[in-house]
Design a protein that fits this description.
Blueprint: E1 15-20, E2 23-29, E3 33-39, E4 50-54, E5 62-66, E6 72-78, E7 83-89, E8 121-125, E9 131-136, E10 147-152, E11 162-165, E12 169-176, E13 181-188, E14 193-200, E15 210-214, E16 218-222, E17 231-238, E18 242-249
Antiparallel strand pairs: 1-2, 2-3, 3-4, 5-6, 6-7, 8-9, 9-10, 10-11, 12-13, 13-14, 14-15, 16-17, 17-18
């Protein structure tokens, strides 16, 4: 098909897309807003931006994901309020119609350091619409959650914040429904490694660290957003020009 150009907002750091009910949605951040744009089947251009949140810091980011029959959802960080935000759009509603901010796991927020949110997040969604996200807090204190996990259930309720590690950064999350497990992979700056911790989806609790990659300045691990089975690929950067790859076998 034809190439479709989209002009994003000044100060944008991230842009992600999700397809739902014949519409492509694009979510991005500006210097102080979280915006979405949509593209219908016969459209040649994306819509004008629809603002979901205001008053974020210029460092904050967002991500959008399809929730199956539940619609699409956008998760974002807000370091000014020291919380995460989430809004949902459902089928057959007007493009500007989004449910109010659910403030994910707001009940878990601790008034400490720079608060519960930071500009690190990554999403995986189960076939039943359960949303799993790895995030980073700004507590920055040994013994307190730094790499953490948010889970939104199909009944629209959020679990409390799950601590994954009190050290680490730039995490991603991978879901394997065949094993009823998910995996949080992130950078350990302390050890110059990419490490992984896993949990059952039935009973949340994280395994010990497993080192997947090692190297000075190794960082920015990435993988698929699809539900996996038996294993998944990883890629990570080391400096400006060197890349590392690995395949994680989960059987």
């Amino acid at each position: 098909g034809p190439m479709i150009h989209v002009k994003l907002d000044e100060g944008v750091e991230t842009a992600t897309i999700a397809s739902f009910d014949g519409v492509v949605w694009l979510a991005s951040d500006s210097e102080n807003e979280i915006n979405v744009r949509w593209l219908g089947l016969s459209a040649q251009t994306f819509s004008e931006p629809i603002t979901l949140a205001e008053g974020i810091s210029k460092d904050d980011i967002c991500a959008i994901a399809s929730l199956g029959i539940e619609g699409v959802g956008v998760l974002w960080s807000n370091q000014n309020t020291q919380r995460y935000g989430f809004r949902r759009h459902v089928r057959a509603s007007e493009p500007h119609s989004w449910f109010p901010d659910e403030v994910p796991a707001g009940q878990s927020a601790i008034d400490y350091g720079d608060g519960m949110s930071d500009d690190h997040l990554n999403i995986a969604v189960g076939s039943d619409g359960t949303l799993y996200a790895t995030v980073k807090t700004s507590y920055d204190t040994e013994g307190m959650p730094l790499v953490a996990c948010l889970i939104r259930r199909p009944n629209h309720k959020w679990d409390h914040l799950y601590s994954v590690d009190d050290e680490g950064s730039r995490g991603i999350i991978v879901l394997d429904e065949s094993l009823k497990a998910f995996y949080v992979i992130y950078t350990s700056y302390r050890d110059s490694t990419i490490v992984m911790r896993s949990s059952s989806t039935d009973s949340i609790g994280f395994s010990d660290r497993k080192v997947l990659m090692r190297g000075r300045r190794i960082n920015n691990v990435s993988s698929t957003r699809q539900i996996v089975s038996d294993g998944f690929p990883l890629v990570a950067s080391q400096g400006d020009s060197l890349m590392h790859t690995a395949v994680v076998t989960t059987k």
